[in-house]
Amino acid sequence: MHDVTFIAVAEAAMARPKGRRWKPDLAAIRAAARMIPGPRPLRVNAVKVAESHRPKSVAYEGGPDTTTVFARTAYQIVYRDGHVMLEAGMDQEIHATFGKGTEEPYYEDENARVQEALRRSIFNVVTHEHGDHIAGVVRTAFFDEIAPKTLLTAVQAWALVVQPQRPQLGISAETAARYRVFDYEDYLPLAAGMVVIKAAGHTPGSQMVYVETEAGTEYLFIGDCAWHMDGIIKCKQKNAPWIDEDRESIMDQLQWLNGIHGSEPNIAIVAGHDDDQLAEYRAAALFGSELELQG
After folding, report:
1. Are 146 and 118 a contacting pair, CB within 8 Å?
2. Dihedral of the CA atoms 200, 240, 91, 130 (nearest 10)?
3. Residue 191 in contact with residue 37, Cβ under 8 Å?
4. Is the pLDDT of residue 4 over 70?
5. Most exposed among 130, 155, 170, 221, judged by the fewest C-beta atoms under 10 Å?
6. Is the pLDDT of residue 12 over 90?
7. How far apart are CA 176 and CA 180, in angstroms?
8. How far, in Å, CA of 284 to CA of 278, rounded?
9. 265-280, pLDDT tens digit by residue?
10. What distance in Å separates the CA atoms of residue 113 and residue 240, rounded to the nearest whole number?
């Protein structure tokens, strides 16, 4: 029988009083990124495993009704001696659940490469427990290889057991305990140049990920706090009634990110599903467009 004490840890974390507003200390996050010795990442690759087509007005309040592409993306953070995967892709069945009866593009070959990258990684991490971010480490033929190197927060693991976003994502507590389940207060370094930041709001287990490369380029992967960069620039929340979010927490996050965008031009904020931004970051060489599967 596996240890399932993460259930109690998660419930205690979610029961903590909400006495203080969400406002991370960027200087402390940068310092945390230097706490683990060793070379920082060399580069970041990004691949799109699927896409959804939605009115832009869904991404943020007051947006236009023109259709835009919501990218479903996974990221590879490349070190000299290996890589870390951020987000896990998803199988076609889970992708179909987002289409609301409409068939939308799915890139099976790219998702297969994500699966291989998850198998070969140093470790894997996700921003939150929704299917388009986590399904690749839950519904996988390589579970025995991938789960032991996948880091889930206690709340993310709890969500898979107690309230999965889709029934197909539900697992037992014993299965959840086969992941590397951990907890932390505000931020935690995971590797040289890489820090996770608690950011509950979109989901109970949401977190952001800060990355600094050897060249000094900084990234802030914000998960689904905002689906499109315009939501941050305009400081506008989603207009999606099917999403149950803590709107006060999301506004705190949007305001902080808006300030970062205005004052820290070196930080590449990565919005959750912004296909336009994905193309821009590739053109600017902030993202490579293919996963590296050596080793």
Report:
1. yes
2. 10
3. no
4. no
5. 170
6. no
7. 9
8. 10
9. 999 999 989 999 999 9
10. 31
Tokens linked to 209: 């990920």
Q: What is the pLDDT of residues 45-84, one digit of tens each?
A: 999 999 999 999 999 999 999 999 999 999 999 999 999 9
CATH number listed for the domain at residues 6-283: 3.60.15.10
Number of neighbours of residue 150 by Cβ within 10 angstroms? 26
CB 12 within 8 A of CB 187: no
Tokens of 87: 């987000």
Q: Does the global pTM surpass 0.85?
A: yes
Let me know the angle formed at the C-alpha of 91 by 87 and 97, rounded to the nearest 5 degrees. 100
Closest CA to 207 of 1, 8, 13, 5: 13
Amino acid 216 reads: G
CA 165 to CA 155: how far, in whole Å? 13
3-class secondary structure per residue, the chain: CCCCCHHHHHHHHHCCCCCCCCCCCHHHHHHHHCCCCCCCCCEEEEEEEEEEEEEHHHHCCCCCCCEEEEEEEEEEEEECCEEEEECCCCCHHHHHHHCCCCCCCECHHHHHHHHHHHHHCCEEECCCCCHHHHHHHCCCCCHHHHHHHEEEEHHHHHHHHHCCCCHHHCCCHHHHCCCEEECCCCEEEEECCEEEEECCCCCCCCEEEEEECCCCCEEEECCCCCCCHHHHHCCCCCCCCCCCCCHHHHHHHHHHHHHHHHHCCCEEEECCCEHHHHHHHHHCCCCECCCCCCC
Structure tokens at 278: 């994905």
What does the block give as tokens for 272?
A: 């959750």
Q: Tell me if 62 sits within 8 A of 48, measured CB to CB.
A: no
